Amino acid sequence: METDFTKSYYNEPMGLTHDISTIKQQYRELFELAHQRLLDLFAQLHANHHCTQCETPATSILEILHTDCGYQAWQKEVIITLDQTIGKQILESLEKIEQAKNVKGSCHQCGVCCSLASSEFSYETLQEKAQNGDYFAQQFTSVFLPYDSPEAAQAKFPEMVTEILDQADGPVYFYHCPYLSSDNKCTIYNDPRRPQICADYPETPLILMYKNCGYQPWKTEMMPTTLLAHATLELCQYYSQKILDALKAAQ
User: Considering the entire predicted model, what is its pTM?
Assistant: First the structure.
């Protein structure tokens, strides 16, 4: 099976700013693309199997088949292909996206990512998550502090906060790092207190990013591939679990 499940064939270039509605629409389109590719894969693998006991061939990969049905081998082959072949393609794609970050982008030391971080979770909720072992929450709350109010954040970044609030589906909480100097330098850059999430930023093109961030060219180019990888992964996980459920039910 030579199909590259990480190639998007998305022909419409994205601008340097990606509003949430645009990303959601693109994700829906790429989700459908990934789904059709999987259905085509199922059909191709189906041709390799048959059952002497079935009057008609199994048509759905999620079908609960009779005991010892020959098409159970089809279901098992699909699971292996999803978990190994396509899973490997997704992992390789995400690694290439990460490797391209410092080739297609660079930090301009504007300090916005340190001065204006946003989350759907309140500081108290993040602290609770950190106490329960959430790695990101532990890293985030180790340095970031909340603004007193959205208005306080908006006073410093009026356009960006307004844009985030206008596109948000629910509450948004804004945070800042107290270790940023007046000239936008990290005062704990070589200190163990600096969390890994800061060293890795931006970890993914899906992150909200200042429109003039030096990593915007990377985000622009890599966004379709990233969305497709996530859509394909979501579908693979869904079908793998549902097929396993069907196999267990047939026992």
Answer: 0.82
